[in-house]
Design goal:
Layout lengths: L8 E5 L2 H11 L3 E5 L3 E6 L2 E7 L9 E6 L3 H10 L14 E2 L2 E3 L3 E7 L5 E7 L1
Parallel strand pairs: 1-4, 5-9
Antiparallel strand pairs: 2-3, 3-4, 6-7, 7-8, 8-9
């Protein structure tokens, strides 16, 4: 389902095989290019490239975000794939059943095997 929505980003991975299982198998994004150094997937009309890295990303902030029409349906589908949204309970961000009310959007986050935070948003 996420593969029909726009995304454009390059992410770092210390284990391309684990990343490929997550993006191609679990999220069902289509592989459009692949080498020993990177895998590129299509998502909607955009591309997501995951490149090999010895260090990965040290930043915990959201790296990319899909814009979807039905956040709950996306999260329900992800759960069937073994992926649950992250839960947050801080002064800045609180989720209920994995979803945060951020004013103009409902937001949820999942993480890939390298800890890259990926947002999923639905406009209100």
């Amino acid at each position: 389902m996420l593969g029909t929505n726009p995304i454009g980003v390059v992410l770092l991975s210390t284990d391309l095989a684990a990343s490929r299982k997550f993006y191609a198998d679990a999220l069902q994004l289509t592989v459009i290019e692949e080498s020993d150094d990177a895998v590129t997937y299509s998502s909607g009309n955009t591309r997501l490239t995951v490149t090999a890295s010895t260090t990965g990303s040290k930043d915990e902030q959201t790296k990319a975000s899909w814009q979807v029409d039905d956040l709950r349906a996306e999260l329900d589908w992800l759960k069937t794939r073994g992926i649950s949204p992250e839960d947050y309970d801080t002064d800045e961000l609180k989720t209920v059943d994995g979803i945060a009310d951020r004013g103009t959007v409902w937001s949820a986050w999942i993480t890939d095997p390298d800890g890259n935070a990926l947002g999923i948003e639905q406009a209100k």
